[in-house]
Design a protein that fits this description.
It contains no helices and 11 strands. It has strands at about 5, 10, 20-25, 35-40, 45-50, 60, 70-75, 80-85, 90-100, 115, 120. β4 (about 35-40) and β5 form a beta hairpin.
């Protein structure tokens, strides 16, 4: 059975860092693009970052460029999101998702499988 499990969320002060993990089972992540999305209260789900399956190209929302870094470890079948210089507006539930390809990575409808989400709260 295909499954994605996020972990690593928590409470952090503004300016702090967290690393989120997305562990896959039931299939191999090597052949898929993986996206990170987030959803804050009263907001629609927002694309945060994506990493391709072919050449490892990465993509980021303007709001997180220079602060977040996406990476993958194929040996562990896991994708990571390193989040630095966190701001209160980064507070949200973060989800990872998988697609076999998309010309519009921010479109959540392109993704086939989703994790359960992990809460990130940035507050002083």
């Amino acid at each position: 059975q295909v499954q994605l499990v996020e972990s690593g969320g928590g409470l952090v002060q503004p300016g702090g860092s967290l690393r989120l993990s997305c562990a896959a089972s039931g299939f191999t992540l090597d052949y898929y693009a993986i996206g990170w999305f987030r959803q804050a209260p009263r907001r629609e789900r927002e694309g945060v970052s994506c990493i391709s399956s072919s050449d490892g190209s990465t993509y980021y929302a303007d709001s997180v460029k220079g602060r977040f870094t996406i990476s993958r470890d194929n040996a562990k079948n896991t994708v990571y999101l390193q989040m630095n210089s966190l701001k209160p507006e980064d507070t949200a539930v973060y989800y990872c998702a998988v697609t076999d390809g998309s010309s519009w990575w921010e479109n959540s409808n392109e993704y086939d499988y989703w994790g359960q989400g992990t809460q990130v709260t940035v507050s002083s």
